[in-house]
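We emphasize that the prediction below concerns an isolated chain of 334 residues; any contacts that depend on oligomerization or on bound cofactors are therefore not represented. The input was used exactly as deposited, without trimming of termini.
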Amino acid sequence: MRVLVTGSAGFIGSHIVEALATAGHEVVGLDLVDGADVRNQEVVRSALRNVDAVCHQAAKVGLDRTVGDAEDYVSHNDIGTAVLLAEMAKAGVRALVFASSMVVYGEGRYECANHGSVRPGPRREPDLIAGLFEPTCPTCEIDLVPGLVGEEAPLDPRNIYAASKVLTEHLAASWVRLEPGARAVALRYHNVYGPRLPRDTPYAGVAALFHSALRNGQPPVVFEDGGQRRDFVHVRDVAEANVAALEWAVGADGDDEFRTYNVGSGTPRTVGEMAAELSRAMNGPAPVVTGEYRLGDVRHITASSALIAEQLGWRARVDFADGVAEFALTHSPA
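Result of the prediction step, given as a token string:
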């Protein structure tokens, strides 16, 4: 198949391009670094010629700082997606796979010993200042036990970036309902790391920040108490998930369909564990835990990737220690 990959020069997009080529598919790349803006109708229209499917990775990513960031996020993420979907409809392209994010869930899945499954509200700044990082039950205020969140969980975006990704999903779902034969897959990425992870963007995440510090002989700086649970998934695994989703979207028979999948390793790790593993791999100083926090960050968010395994046969294959060791040796920021 011939696939248009938006954001093709980016961290994840560049690995998807490689994975598609390895699988024998033809790739058309579109990226802002080359002056090709997905918000430009003429650029998108030209790129869609003779294309069988679109893999949409172009986006502004990271944790917004103020409400003043809203226009930029909505412009890149939502208007860009709207332009792409409109041009796909005109071109008769009916298969879409796109990057969503774990952030659409807000806080992850929690169990209360007294009240079962609960959804804590946003963490309060006075609690964070006091070093009380764990969410508590909204009814009895006891500590909660975090678990794996599934795709059926309600969406609860807690910052502007997260809200923009939720809207992206809604736009794609609406496109599927309006376009006969259309199929779309939202891949909700968890914490992606690996070669070419960018160092100087909000999406760089802890892995790139830790790597930069260690490369300069400094200890990695860990916020809160380091106990934040995440699902670190290797970028090559994420690229393979995109290939699997694209092949389904192009080859599936039947009615129009919109699917969402978590894309994670399935093995939760803490931020402190990532820092310690990377320090060991780079023979660097031990992490320093500061107690600092970022308002809008969630405490725990880890995925169940059982659904994509069941329906598309995809499973993460890169072992955590092996992936971190490779990242330590080969990381070259995009």
